[in-house]
Amino acid sequence: MHSGIFRPFTLFSMMILLLSSSAKALVPVSKAFELKIDSYKPRIQKILRDHYGTLWIGTDRGVFKFDGIGFQQVPAGDTSSGTVSALYEDNLYQIWIGYEDGHIATIEKNVFKFDFIPNKVSGTAISAFAQDTEGKLFFTTKGNGVFYYDNGQIHNINLADGMSDNYCYSAILLPDGRLCVGTDRGLNFIRIQKEKKEITSFSSLNGLPDNIVRTLSLDHWNNLWIGMQDKGVCKLNFTSDNFEITEKSLDWTHGQVNGLLPLENEVWLATEEEGIQIEDSTGNTNPLIFTDSKIRLSKVNDITMDLEQNVWIASGNLLIRSSGEKLRFLYGSPSLAFTSIHCVLADRKGNIWFSPDQQLIKASPSPEGNFTYQKFIVTTGKHLTDIVALYEDIYGFIWIGTMGEGVFRLNPTNGTIKKVHGQDNLDNSSILSINGSRDDIWITGFNGAVKFRIEERGESDNAILVCTSTPEIDTLTNNYVYAVLPDKKGRVWMGTDEQGLAMIKDRKIHFFTKKDGLPSNTIHSISEGMDGNIWLATSDAGISVYDGTKFKNYSIANGLSDDSPISIQCDKSGNICIVHANGIDILNPATEKILYHGPEEGLEELTPDPNSISQDRNGNIWIGTRAGLLVYRPFAFQLWPQPSIRITGISVFLQEIDPSLQRNFEYDENNIRFDFSSTWYSDPEKIQYAYLLEGYTTKWQETKDRSVIFPKLPPGNYRFRVRSSLNEIEKDTQEANYSLVIHAPVWQRWWFRSVVFILASIIFYLLIRRREERLRKVDRLQKEKIQFQFETLRSQVNPHFLFNSFNTLITVIEENPVKAVEYVERLSEFFRNIVTYRDRDLIPLDEELTLLENYIFIQRKRYGDSLMMNIHLDPGTRQNFQIPPLTLQLLAENAIKHNSVSKETPLVIDLFVSNEMLFVRNNINPKIQKEKSTGLGLQNIINRYKLLTSLPVKVDHATDHFTVALPLLTENKL
Amino acid sequence: MYRPLLLLLVFYSFISGTPPVTKYYHTNTGYVAFRSDAPQEIISAKSNQLRGILDIEKKVFVFKVSLNTFDGFNSGLQREHFNDKFLETEVYPEVIFSGKIIEDIDFEHEGTYTLRAKGKLSVHGIEQERILKVTVTVHHSIIYVESRFNILLADHSIKVPKVVHEKIASEIGIDVKAELKPKH
Q1: Would you say A372 and A366 are in contact if contact means Cβ atoms under 8 Å apart?
Q2: Strands (E), A700-850
Q3: Could you report how far apart the first and last alpha carbons of chain B are, in Å?
């Protein structure tokens, strides 16, 4: 079945050295930020973390906002910036500031709004704020009890109401809806119900260790932690009706407690005299040590935690960030530095085994919350060797893989170390990884892989080990195998150099390579997730996960910090811890979001060895690096922390506006600047912003700046969207947005345009109509004129007229040839005039009269003195007025036509002017036989005048005379 | 806050007659000493005229001492400096400490207790809120009070000229002992 080589152990070494400097605690990474105003160093009194995660700092010089890099003072308005004694964010995210001098302020639009309450109400220092479930805001004072706002009124609760003391330090709302106030004489539990104050006190008479309760805090499980003046801290279980002190510190000597912060396993106390004291779950108290040796604290005023699990400490003018429980280093001593660690193993008893340089150290947790160290010398006797692989078998023995000296097995109870002999390729070989499952131990290294089986006496120094060689394992001989992992399903995974990922299953070996979707053929580290997925760290192509069917790869393109991960470990929360040269990335496989811990958090130049990673029984991940022994505590985040974004200001032409009020802008208010900010205290420089102005741009613009300006925005509807992330990849991050409208100028708005259009249309229409009217008028005039000419011509060329004229002419020729010439001349002139005036609308009255006279002359040759015409017109009238041509001639013709003209009944035509009218009047002697009349002549005149003037032509048909009154026209009357 | 209380107690201390229950304990002959350990000069002085009254029911107290009752200086000049330069005794003639006892103890029960007296300490016209540890022994209806504490000159705006900087410590040690007897 197998070609087993059976050999006993060789005892090489049995050395245990107890290190003298044995008491060492885990040290979180810290960084101090110094607050200074010019040369003044404000004392930080209070720290508030708001719901966004932003830190507000209350000092003796007002309030500052901290963004992870620097402090920005909140403008104090016109009131002096006094000493802040309380900071609070209410349910509506309003920030309240209480001052030593009794003032209360709120922050609005980044500026203080002071004197929310009249001074006389309080007058003593404000010590705390709290808000109940109904939204009533309480504040406590150092001497005048508790106040609260209700229905716009301020009420007081004090000794007279049953409080045990009026000097209050702290207040907190309990989950049962009661307010708990810490005073000089114990706790007071207050409930306001319908104006009725229900107060219960709890003091040293009830078992409280110390009456002076300075600070209160609720932990994750809703226990109430009480920080006292003289007796440290205690925990109160208030869910039962009987108050029960479940934990208390004895012999407290660190001074009064100014602030406390319950973490998951520990409670951190800000003390008056001895910096931060950390009380662990066993009740032991140890001082917080700072990685930055320059930080030495005595009086600490406040302590809080941000959303990224960083702890913030206020002391003097220093604001100190500590990695709290999440990241810590275990430091050695000056004589034995815990650096250049090649491998680490957390055993099942809670001991940590690791190998700085060529040593093997066992760090055992002590009951006091520290570690004691034991040093083991592992050697074949020739020289010391690097220890590069550690494994604890099921018997609790430690397998030690060395560089060039093979494998040893160590009995931790007596320190016996024995060399493990196996195949030749193992004895003096270099080991890279040891792992196992029950009695099977896999050892891999520069010469492939070896499998051992603990046959018997596994619990003793003389265990019988059988080295098995099988064809499928032999395939790997002479190959580097960096990592080995037997999984829960009975498969064994091996990470090889250039040959891909080897999987041994049912005595068969299978290689997964790039062809199968692996990003690289060199695998440095392997870890099995809780779901059975196999996670791999490749040499240079990121990480990969195998779910049983396919590989899924993550690289820098997916947000990883580094494509050359060195170790990988699935943590107890289901996240993947990826170690690289300059930090660790934490990947959440479900959301594919990544958290980063890097140089900013002290993880610098780690350059760890592959597989120098181990998960302890509590789920903490130990990482051995060149820089030291690091422990990462996975946190079950309720909310995956991410930088939260908010728009901090909007400016129009650099003039800040109130974003809550103004969302409508005029067309010339189109230079708009948006300020936004996000905080990521663990590494502020890592924040990336992306913004989009909907309605203007369509692509997200990435930036590191915290403001953007849009000059010359055209009118329109816009929505500014901005988000922040820790890498370029993340897209579904939180977003802040702001909608605004830039109105078009008045001349571009639709209603204005409509009105203008309608007006223009009306004007155009009117113009057209007037023009048409005029055209029609001209047309009619033309028609009338033609009609008139026709009439005139017809009447003049009336054969009767011509016949009469010729007869007359014959008579005249006979009687008086000279006169005949004149007659013909007149006749000729008359006709010429008719032709000449034919096309004209108006002619001077004078000319018409000449024509008329010619006509009368012609007619008088026929009628003699029976026809008389009297023209009573002065020369001025003749010259100045105008008349349509042939009007008078026509009237004269009509008169002749319609009347008998004889000696007995002479026809007299009178022309005179009266009332600005030219009158043509003739007497009436109707003909017996009426000449056929078209009646068109007079009508034509009337029509023509209608076109020329608004004045009417009056016709008076009396019994004895017929009168036509023509308006006197001047040229411009047309 | 303690001022009305103070007036009340002062008032009580002047009227004669016996309250129905002995809830007040008082002294007029308490001992106060101070000591300044400066590199160049040690200044110390004491007074036996500390007056004090304690209400054992309400657990409030007032103690005061006139600065001109101090003696035991090294020299008259030192005393003059003490009174004129540093403490301006003419303007601020008294040191007063008034406040309350934090611990819930029964002063009628014999025994020795360590208590905290919290109150306002007025020195040089400047009030500072202090919590002082006091050892109290109740024996045969007498309350023995003992306390040691420090006063920071800076806390009370006591300015020390640069010249005498080496002669006066920034912190002055105070020693108090008093026997409070029931006030009938």
Answers
A1: yes
A2: 701-703, 707-710, 716-725, 735-742, 843-844
A3: 27
**H or E element that contains A12:** strand A10-13
Tell if the CB–CB gap between A143 and B1 is shorter than 8 Å.
Answer: yes
Question: Which residues in chain A are closer than 8 Å to B106, comparing Cβ atoms?
Answer: none
SS3 assignment, position A948: helix
Phi, psi of A716 (to 5 degrees): 160, 180
Q: What tens digit of pLDDT does each residue of A281-327 get?
A: 877 888 898 877 788 888 999 999 998 889 999 999 999 999 998 99
Q: Which of A535-549, A786-800, B92-106, B167-181 has the least mean pLDDT?
A: A786-800
Torsional class of A539: left (φ above 0), alpha (ψ -120 to 50), beta (otherwise): alpha
The ipTM assigned to this model is: 0.82
Nearest to A205 among B1, B104, B131 (CB): B104
Three-state helix/strand/coil letters over chain B: CCHHHHHHHHHHHHCCCCCCCCCEEEEEEEEEEEEEECCCCEEEEEEEEEEEEEECCCCEEEEEEEHHHCECCCCHHHHHHHHHHHCCCCCCCEEEEEEEECCCCCCCCCEEEEEEEEEEEEECCEEEEEEEEEEEEEECCEEEEEEEEEEEHHHHCCCCCHHHHHHCCCEEEEEEEEEEEECC
Q: Do B118 and A205 touch (CB under 8 A)?
A: no
For all residues of chain B together, what is the average pLDDT? Answer: 84
A545-561 residue pLDDT tens? 999 899 999 999 888 98
| Dist CA A247 CA A203 (whole Å) | 16
Residues composing chain B = 184
pTM of the model: 0.76
- In chain A, which residues have their Cβ closer than 8 Å to the Cβ of B1? 124, 143-144, 166
Residue of A nearest to B117 (CA): A184
Q: How far apart are CA A842 and CA A286, in angstroms?
A: 125
